[in-house]
Design a protein that fits this description.
Helix content: 25-40%
Distance between the termini: 82 Å
Number of strands: 3
Largest sheet: 3 strands, parallel
Strand order of the largest sheet: 1-2-3
Shape: extended
Strand content: 5-15%
Number of helices: 6
């Protein structure tokens, strides 16, 4: 007596489809009840948000992790601001350039005490232009002030 047998591939295919369906069902989160869907809001604003959220026409974000290219970073920032103002005729008061620093580049916004304590100049090979030695003070203060005068915001 001969029975109709399913081919092995058909059985494996069926088992595979079933396994995928079971996995998908197990990974799907249950639907949330309507009473669980409450939007939580806050009126809290970080201090820098006011400077960024003003009525502005031109925005850009620059980021860099390395102190070794800080002078190029400042030149690029100044060039962007100048180009937007001169070439694209944007009102300087309605432009924001956000300098989002991370890693060692955060040191550009730190005071001389931190530079001295942590030997940032020696650690990051930054030379003080006056002493020609590893910087024990922040040599970028003047560059930062110039950019802040042009509505640049530094995040660190």
């Amino acid at each position: 007596m001969e029975t109709d047998r399913l081919p092995r591939r058909a059985v494996l295919r069926t088992l595979g489809v079933a396994a995928v369906a079971a996995t998908a069902a197990a990974c799907t989160p249950p639907a949330a009840r309507s009473e669980d869907k409450k939007l939580v809001t806050s009126d809290f604003k970080w201090p820098y948000e006011k400077a960024i959220e003003t009525d502005i026409d031109a925005r850009a974000v620059m980021a860099s992790p390395h102190l070794s290219n800080a002078s190029i970073y400042f030149v690029q920032a100044a060039n962007w601001l100048t180009s937007m103002e001169r070439d694209y005729k944007y009102d300087p008061a309605k432009m924001r350039l956000v300098m989002a620093n991370y890693g060692p580049m955060n040191f550009i916004t730190y005071n001389d005490s931190i530079w001295s304590t942590y030997k940032a100049g020696e650690w990051q090979q930054v030379t003080d232009p006056q002493t020609k030695q590893p910087a024990t003070r922040n040599p970028f203060v003047a560059d930062i002030k110039k950019l802040q005068d042009r509505q640049c915001v530094f995040l660190t």
